[in-house]
Amino acid sequence: MRISEVMGAKAHAGIVTISPEAGVRELIATLAEHNIGAVVVTGPEGRLEGIVSERDVVRRLHHDGTVINNDVRSIMTAQVHTCSPDDDLDDVMQTMTRERFRHVPTVDADGRVVGIVSIGDVVKHKIDRLQFERDQLDSYVHG
After folding, report:
1. Are 66 and 57 a contacting pair, CB within 8 Å?
2. pLDDT for the residue 55
3. Rounded Cα gap, residues 119 and 51, in angstroms
4. d(Cα 94, Cα 122) in Å, to the nearest integer?
């Protein structure tokens, strides 16, 4: 199973991005407006520069309450684990579990962000797959 299958099954495949120069207040508003847990930070031409999550905001605020007045660059994670649409879902899931992060930007061969996969997307896809297999077995046994 490939990441492209997970991305194709998402109800809303749009990518929410923010620039590194945007303010942390704007970031918080974006997270709330879209009801999401992370935003991809992109520069010119959609190139990945980082990722910033609710966790990043909360942890920085805990240490420095004035960070709310800074820009996104000051709190984003710049070294981002990414995947490609052709990557194996189980491999990406293992990386997410091992490294303890919940969002993985998906980039194409040119380095442009084409999507983001969350742990919720992965779990939903796995559950849907298990339900499909269960229904097929049930149909076979009772059919």
Report:
1. no
2. 92
3. 15
4. 11
